[in-house]
Amino acid sequence: PEGPGILVYYHGAIPIDYLYFLSRLFLWKKRLCLSVADHFVFRLPGLKLLLEVTGVMPGTREECLIALKNGHLVSVSPGGVREALFSDESYQLMWGNRKGFAQVALDAKVTKTAVQALISKHQTIPGSIWKALLERFDKRRKSD
């Protein structure tokens, strides 16, 4: 979207597709997309400044609303690192009471975009990250 919006994406073990998206968004549209991260990431030694400079922010509802009202794109990955690192092919997303990003989108009255196509095309939760990478690159080589 041209104005503010929430982008919902699947984190994966290594969210390389999301990083490519951020790069292309900046190169093509000259826009930044702020990324929501769990508060624990900001406690890791040496990372807080890097995260702030690269547009990663704690995911409080208030901070997300402020960013959206200032015209930013904000991305969120439900489950994030926890579900990316501690799941396997039989894993089901645990929503629990985590619906904050949906409420933020409603409160801010912004565009909501789910990157579902990227999940089915590129992301599977691997039993082995090396197997997943090999399958991804092997498929790409065959389709080129």
UniProtKB/TrEMBL annotation:
Residues 2-111 form the Phospholipid/glycerol acyltransferase domain. The chain crosses the membrane at residues 6-27. It comes from Hypotaenidia okinawae. GO terms for molecular function: acyltransferase activity. The keyword Transmembrane applies. This is Transmembrane protein 68-like. One of its GO terms (cellular component) is membrane. Keywords: Membrane, Transmembrane, Transmembrane helix. The keyword Transmembrane applies. It holds the Pfam family Acyltransferase. InterPro entries: Plipid/glycerol_acylTrfase.
